[in-house]
Amino acid sequence: QKEVEQDPGPLSVPEGAIVSLNCTYSNSAFQYFMWYRQYSRKGPELLMYTYSSGNKEDGRFTAQVDKSSKYISLFIRDSQPSDSATYLCAMITGGGADGLTFGKGTHLIIQP
Amino acid sequence: DTGVSQDPRHKITKRGQNVTFRCDPISEHNRLYWYRQTLGQGPEFLTYFQNEAQLEKSRLLSDRFSAERPKGSFSTLEIQRTEQGDSAMYLCATETGVGYTFGSGTRLTVV
Lengths: 112, 111
What we know:
heterodimer, A: mainly beta, 6-stranded mixed sheet, 5-stranded antiparallel sheet, 0% helix, 56% strand, globular, B: mainly beta, 4-stranded antiparallel sheet, 11 strands
């Protein structure tokens, strides 16, 4: 079992829909959780950064962390075709010595 | 522009050749990381520096790989005797206090 599991998709939704992306993890030492967006042939771009359990909202994006279930989510409201990309969850322990552990990424397609 | 520059953007090399990549991070960020990403996978941690000191190496970093960060500023990643399995995107990142900022990566193709 990999430390971080993420459904690779593709996930295809119509423009304007609410998108839900999820990751599960097994290492209870993870404390910081991130979501990255990656366009083809580009580096990952940080979208959301959260510490421990709870919700965080930024514009159309909401990140949720449930440490008791080892489950994190990213919601995208009013999805746009420009949101089409690969979304990667990432997490790291408090010490950070081993760097970020990423999921495989979910390929999201927003249909106009 | 993420503030983390990587050069070159794309490198094609013949198997057995040596290659070197460069990363110029956001200034004043002490921690610098190298990751490798293959098609359909998330980035995988290779190594990281705290200033000029290389503090951690992944088991993915075979003895053909070496990384340096002289003076704690830019960093280089060298791969000796490249193999086809080394074909991947090599990403550099710095820790900003509110996450990790990545460069656009160097895409290596070994033919």
